[in-house]
Amino acid sequence: MSRSTRDASGKAAGPQLPKGTYLFVPVSTIHHNVTAWGPTARLFDPSRFQDGVAAACKHPQASFVLFGLSARTCLGQNLALVEVKTLVAVVLARFEFTLSPEFGLRLRISRSPS
């Protein structure tokens, strides 16, 4: 993600930046920010999203930027989302999902007969 300052008084993390200064912040840096995501920010923990993105971080609008923001949103976002939905549909069609007899959220997955 890149931005430039609009006036001579633009500040980023404290230092004074001259007008027109070009800043580049890698999205992966934002997604690993301990201040926004907590002490486990650098760990793979899908369970942090069990209550949604808004509950997972302090500033969900600015901290979870998969495809960019506003006018600079990735052109491939819609295609990527359609591909994921298609993949899920194919997986659901080819496999049979049943709850485990021991209950819980465990699933027993078996290949559907073709």
Automatic annotation (TrEMBL):
GO molecular function, one term: oxidoreductase activity, acting on paired donors, with incorporation or reduction of molecular oxygen
Entry annotated with the keyword Membrane: yes
Source taxon at top rank: Eukaryota
Keywords from the UniProt entry: Heme, Iron, Membrane, Metal-binding, Monooxygenase, Oxidoreductase, Transmembrane, Transmembrane helix
Pfam families, sorted: p450
Gene3D superfamilies: Cytochrome P450
Gene Ontology BP annotations: lipid metabolic process
GO CC field: membrane
Entry's localization field: Membrane
Family matches, as InterPro entries: Cyt_P450 (IPR001128), Cyt_P450_sf (IPR036396), Cytochrome_P450_Monooxygen (IPR050665)
Protein family per UniProt: Belongs to the cytochrome P450 family.
Protein name stated in the entry: Uncharacterized protein
Organism this protein belongs to: Oryza sativa subsp. indica
